[in-house]
Structures are given as structure tokens and as C-alpha cells.
Write a structure and sequence with these properties.
It is a single chain. The protein is of the alpha+beta class. The chain folds into 2 domains: 99 residues, no CATH class; 48 residues, no CATH class. 36% of the residues lie in helices and 27% in strands. The chain is built from 4 helices and 6 strands. The protein has a 6-stranded antiparallel sheet with strand order 4-1-2-3-6-5.
């Protein structure tokens, strides 16, 4: 059954797509890095003023947030739907309150709701520095592109008349690589006869 699924579904397309997503993500993180210092920008979604998720970029940090605890009616400050944020930041503002010496931090805070006394909002924030996010996505690019790099190296070895497994020069051999024992490709064997 596995071989039939493998023949129907092209896994190399999935691998290439994942690799492309990580390449684009790495480029976006590197482009966003210098933009995050003069401006705080991001996007989020609010559900009926009771829960909200958002992602922001501020002062070299990527901030994922989850807020809950709005049991009351919808306010003018938290309408339901998508929220876009683009705010100019004064120099030195934002991000200084979080200890990210290891590249990430987590913060949970209970804040009183300004519209409803006695009701708290639970804020959960995950802070990741741009350099850590770029490094992790770069590692993901290398991990997902490994099969394509290996195939490129094998084709290069074969074009040069070398063993596709170890790279040993096969011009003096007829059928097998003397280094690793791999059978010589047909094109190399014909050229040696």
C-alpha cells in the first residue's frame, strides 16, 4: 500500500515546496530585521473580544502573542476580525523589557481590563530575536535542500567520469569503483573501453 501511495503522490514536490517556504521565510526575516527598529508592525485576529492572537515585529524581536480574558461585550478598542499594526517607535523604545540573551523569552502577564473592573486579561507572549529566527530557518533550508544538493553532486561526479558514491576517478577502471565497490555508470564504462 505504501508503494502505491508513493507512486500516486509526488513526495519530491512536497519537499521542494517545504524548502521554498523556508527560503522565502528566511528572506522575509532578514528583510524585516532592520525595519523592526524604527517601527512596530504586525497583524492579528480577534474573536468576539474574548481571545486574540497576533504576531509583531518590534526592536529586533518577533513577538507571538495570545490574549484571553475579554468576557464582556465587544469594545471599540478590540473589534472582532483582523487587526493590522504599523506604528512609528521612538528610538530605544520596545523590546528593552525582555531578557533575550539566549535569543528567546516567554512572558505571561495578567492585566486588568480597562472596560470591566475586576476582570483580568491573560497575556502570553513568546519573544524570538530576528537573528535566532533567521538561523533556525536557515538550518531548515539546509535540511530540506540536502537531497537536491546530493543529487547535484552525484550528477557532477558522473559527468566528470567519477564514482557517484565516493567521487573516485573511474577513467582507469571498467566496471567497479576500486575505492568503494560501487558499479560504474554505463556512460563511464563505455568511455573506458
Amino acid at each position: 500500500m505504501v508503494s502505491r501511495i508513493g507512486s500516486i503522490f509526488d513526495w519530491s514536490f512536497v519537499q521542494r515546496s517545504i524548502c521554498l517556504v523556508f527560503v522565502v521565510l528566511t528572506i522575509l526575516i532578514c528583510v524585516d530585521w532592520p525595519i523592526s527598529y524604527p517601527r512596530c508592525h504586525g497583524a492579528g485576529y480577534v474573536w468576539d473580544s474574548s481571545k486574540a492572537v497576533d504576531i509583531q515585529s518590534v526592536s529586533g524581536l518577533i513577538v507571538w502573542g495570545y490574549t484571553t480574558g475579554y468576557p464582556g461585550p465587544r469594545t471599540t478598542f478590540q473589534p472582532a476580525g483582523f487587526v493590522w499594526l504599523w506604528v512609528a517607535m521612538p528610538p530605544g523604545a520596545g523590546g528593552a523589557w525582555v531578557d533575550t540573551r539566549w535569543g528567546f523569552a516567554y512572558e505571561r502577564a495578567d492585566m486588568p481590563d480597562a472596560n470591566q473592573p475586576g476582570v483580568n486579561q491573560a497575556l502570553h507572549h513568546l519573544y524570538i530575536t530576528h537573528w535566532l529566527a533567521a538561523a533556525l530557518s536557515g538550518v531548515a533550508v539546509l535540511a530540506t535542500s540536502r537531497p537536491y544538493l546530493s543529487a547535484w553532486i552525484r550528477r557532477r561526479h558522473q559527468r566528470r567520469g567519477c564514482c557517484t558514491h565516493c567521487g573516485y576517478d573511474l577513467r582507469g577502471t571498467k566496471d567497479r569503483c576500486p575505492e568503494c565497490g560501487t558499479p560504474a555508470p554505463a556512460a563511464s564504462a563505455k568511455g573506458n573501453q
